[in-house]
Amino acid sequence: MHTPRLPDGGPPVIAPPTGHGAGLTRLAATVERLSREVREAHAVADGRALMEMAKGVLVERLGCGPAEASRQLSLLAEQSGTGLLEFAAEVVNQAARDRLTEAADDLLGDRVDVVGAREPARSAAVRLRTAESGALVAGDTQAVAESLFEHALAPLGATAIAVWSVAMDASLTLRGSAGFAPDEARRWHHVPPGVATPARRALNERSAVWLADLGESGLPSIGGRDLTGARVTAPAESGGRVVGVLEICWPHPLPPQPPQIRRQVEALAELCAHTLDTTPPAEYGEPVADELVDLADTLLDAAFVLRPHLSPTGELADFRIYHANNRFVDLAGRPRGAVTGMLLLEAYPLAAGEGALFDKVERVHATGEPFRAERMALTALVDQVPLTAVAEIGITRHGDRVLVVWRVEDETTRLADLLHHAQRLGRIGGFEEEVGGRITWNSQLFALYGLEPTDDPVPLSALPDHCHPDDTATITRFLRTVLHYRRPGSAAFRFQRHDGIVRHIRVIAEPVVDDLGDRLLAVRGAYQDVSAQHWTEVALSATRDRLAHTEQHAAEQSRLALQLQRAIMPLTAPSFDAFDLRVAVRYRPAEQEHLVGGDWYDAVVLPSKHVLVSVGDITGHGIKGATGMVVLRNALRGLAATGAGPAQLLGWLNLVAHHLTDHIFATAVCALYEPDTRVLRWARAGHPPPVLIRDGQPSALSTLRGIMLGAISEAEYEEGELVLRSEDTLLLYTDGLIERRDTDLDECLGHLLTDCAAEVASLDDRLDHLLAHSRADTDDDTCVVGIQLT
């Protein structure tokens, strides 16, 4: 195909298409041109509307005609050095001082918008006012949506918007959209009340909802299959009532937005509210109020119709009682004519407050979601005294009206309800049986029998057929007492239901006779399911038996442990002398026999002519503690015969505790005295250190390294040496002598040193003095061993 060129060698001239393809191309170009012209016409019309708004402001401010206002507008714009539209927007902002003005004021100076592009504040203000003017002259909500999208939101990077209206049942209806495919708009034309969407969240929360990414939120919405970026939904409020929701879509996730952008969105939502309020669907028309009055008059309960009462600024201030039906009963005793026309808070000032009636009415009016409560307190003032009644209440919105219906709970209803709950909790089923006639059961009795409420009641005479064979005689005597002797009677029996379940039942009945007492008319009574009580008594009886057996076993264990302990550790042991040592021992068992512990002591002369002195404390009480004490005490005595030192002896004793016993843990102090050198070698295993009294001054020996017995398999113990002098006294003791529950061990040891400083006549007196002045409160065993060098 040859492509012609211009004579001067310019670009090639594209030959126009020919044939069928040429016709389609021309048609597409024509459609595009006409669409562009339509958009330009709309923009010019919206701009012209903004200009007319500014002229109107100047007419009012300057007191001139429209022609003079137009000339002044042009002159002032030229003098200010701004464009005509920018100056018109400024004039409207100064006059309106509304939410759009606040949004425009936020944009003074440069700012960064949601798409990151910088835009002069005046240009943004023109966009907002142009969008407003377009919305005001639009004939329907669809045109408003298109104007808002084109002038205010598309420059912010938005790709689509939707305007929803809220119906009386809190459902959402798509009233206008831009940027969505027609099929998608038709598919989302109606959203039922129970569907959770971003618009529903804004409606429930009554505040703007900013979702950074619709896909991550998991909420379905219009265009959600194709547009999964950011979503913003803002409630459109008018007079305190949410009449709709503005939803805006962005193609990508958004970071947190500055307050300027948020206020722009809220201002645009307010424009939508104005449009939805001035062009409502048919269900919002005034005929709804008349139909609502007719509906209220047909109700059998008290009801009144409320309409919103707005403040001078257009905000919801109260509700006016528009109509009260003929069933209306005022808590304060006023006729319905006296409250009709009053404001709700004037008629019932105590209805204010969080969770009270006014709060519920306001929420229903705002969101359209009905409210219902089975028990709600209603309070009125009667001669300045608050009178409260409990009522079942329901609140619904119909257009901009609210219907409140309530039923006050009277005393009879309250007592019947209370009796029903008492019977349910007590598992009591009542009955009345006329002789040869009707049998009446309550619902609980059907449940006790395992029958459906539609089944026929079982007559009292058939009761033997439903009881355990062993209880037939009991039921026969009960029936003879009531039916034959006409006296009240009761019986407890096992009831066998048709489904195989056996329940323990107590039945009580009384006859109803005629005035002469000759003829039985009916029998009234009740059944009570006492199965839980029966099995509780059985379980308690078994528990008492087990407890008695356990107590007996525990007593035997404590007795055996006490006998074993006293056989090895007598309460009194005589003092004795060994070489140049005087040895005295005191042992005080726990005050409570069941706390028999494992404290032990030993003082013996070994074959090597050394003196072994030791004390120890087994963890735990009872037979285990006593037997553990015997094992370690005897093991230490046997190991000491080897001639090993105290550290080695404790190392071996640790192996015995860890490997050769049933998990015994113990602390101990072991000392060996050599008479020839007067050297005392000692070691400790987690036990308090001995106390040395020299020249009347007590002091605790330095703490040596050593872990408690049985804690680990291999342990090393440090050994210390002490050369005793004449009149030195050394005390070995268990923690039962010093330990207090609320005091640390160092402070307890300090108290012991204070007691040891007392002057005494002999070693025996010193040990008796220490036991008598002990400040311990743990009720534990106590061992004290004292040695004194003469």
Automatic annotation (TrEMBL):
<keyword id="KW-0805">Transcription regulation</keyword>
<dbReference type="InterPro" id="IPR003018">
    <property type="entry name" value="GAF"/>
</dbReference>
<dbReference type="InterPro" id="IPR001932">
    <property type="entry name" value="PPM-type_phosphatase-like_dom"/>
</dbReference>
<dbReference type="InterPro" id="IPR000014">
    <property type="entry name" value="PAS"/>
</dbReference>
<dbReference type="InterPro" id="IPR052016">
    <property type="entry name" value="Bact_Sigma-Reg"/>
</dbReference>
<dbReference type="Pfam" id="PF03861">
    <property type="entry name" value="ANTAR"/>
</dbReference>
<dbReference type="Pfam" id="PF13185">
    <property type="entry name" value="GAF_2"/>
</dbReference>
<dbReference type="InterPro" id="IPR036388">
    <property type="entry name" value="WH-like_DNA-bd_sf"/>
</dbReference>
<feature type="domain" description="ANTAR">
    <location>
        <begin position="31"/>
        <end position="92"/>
    </location>
</feature>
<keyword id="KW-0804">Transcription</keyword>
<dbReference type="Pfam" id="PF08447">
    <property type="entry name" value="PAS_3"/>
</dbReference>
<dbReference type="InterPro" id="IPR029016">
    <property type="entry name" value="GAF-like_dom_sf"/>
</dbReference>
<dbReference type="InterPro" id="IPR035965">
    <property type="entry name" value="PAS-like_dom_sf"/>
</dbReference>
<dbReference type="Pfam" id="PF07228">
    <property type="entry name" value="SpoIIE"/>
</dbReference>
<protein>
    <submittedName>
        <fullName>PAS domain-containing protein</fullName>
    </submittedName>
</protein>
<dbReference type="InterPro" id="IPR005561">
    <property type="entry name" value="ANTAR"/>
</dbReference>
<dbReference type="InterPro" id="IPR036457">
    <property type="entry name" value="PPM-type-like_dom_sf"/>
</dbReference>
<feature type="region of interest" description="Disordered">
    <location>
        <begin position="1"/>
        <end position="21"/>
    </location>
</feature>
<dbReference type="InterPro" id="IPR013655">
    <property type="entry name" value="PAS_fold_3"/>
</dbReference>
<keyword id="KW-0378">Hydrolase</keyword>
